Amino acid sequence: MIDHFGINCVHWEESKSFYDKVLGVLGYTRQMDFEAAIGYGADGHPSFWIGDASVGDVSGPNREMHLAFVAKDAESVQAFYRTALALGAEPLHEPRMWPEYHDNYYGAFVRDPEGNNVEAVFHGGGPDVSGPPV
Predict the structure, then answer these.
(1) Region 82-100 average pLDDT
(2) CA 99 – CA 46 distance, rounded (Å)
(3) 99-113 pLDDT, tens per residue?
(4) Can you tell me the mean pLDDT for 11-19?
(5) Number of domains within the chain
(6) CATH number of the domain within which 113 lies
(7) What angle do CA 128, 95, 86 make, to 5 degrees?
(8) What is the CA radius of gyration of the chain?
(9) 65 in helix, strand or coil?
(10) What are the residues facing 111 on neighbouring strands?
(11) CB under 8 Å to 129, separation ≥6 — which residues?
(12) CB 29 within 8 Å of CB 72
């Protein structure tokens, strides 16, 4: 169900050191590092992210949390996005390929009613170009 999630850290340098060490003893390492966001996990799959809370749009006392749900296929990512928008969710990123994450990463992002960044992701690539539009 849960593919990955992320939290934001006010004490960025201290948090990086903390998670490097405590997750390291559990066998997890940095899988991706975008300077303002670091993904920890194993075998090339970052499943826990920390983000620098001082970077980006901060609205309110706490910055949004990020939560990504596993989708069974690209069509499910599209259905997630359409359903969320029909329910009044704010669109963040329509369904598309995200090659900066990996070659077959297909995801869509919305803001939930509480202001969190919620995603559906399929790791098997996008829809067939002859398939139905988003």
Answers:
(1) 96
(2) 15
(3) 999 999 999 999 998
(4) 94
(5) 2
(6) 3.10.180.10
(7) 115
(8) 16
(9) coil
(10) 90, 117
(11) none
(12) no
The DSSP secondary-structure symbol of 24 reads H
118 within 8 A of 110, measured Cβ to Cβ = yes
The residue behind tokens 């170009």 is 129
pLDDT of residue 90: 95
Are the beta carbons of 95 and 131 closer than 8 angstroms?
A: no
- DSSP class per residue in 71-90: -SSHHHHHHHHHHHHHTTPE
Q: Which domain holds residue 39?
A: 1-55
Within this chain, do residues 87 and 117 fall inside the same structural domain, yes or no?
yes
Tens digit of each residue's pLDDT (9 = 90 or more) over 17-64 = 999 999 999 999 999 999 999 999 999 999 999 999 888 755 555 567
Strand order in 29-33's β-sheet? 29-33, 37-42, 45-52, 2-9, 66-70, 117-122, 106-111, 90-97
Q: What is the arithmetic mean of pLDDT over 80-101?
A: 96
- Residue 94 · residue 108 · CB < 8 Å: yes
Considering the domain architecture, whether residues 23 and 80 belong to the same structural domain is answered as: no
> Which pair of structure tokens corresponds to residue 91?
């669109």
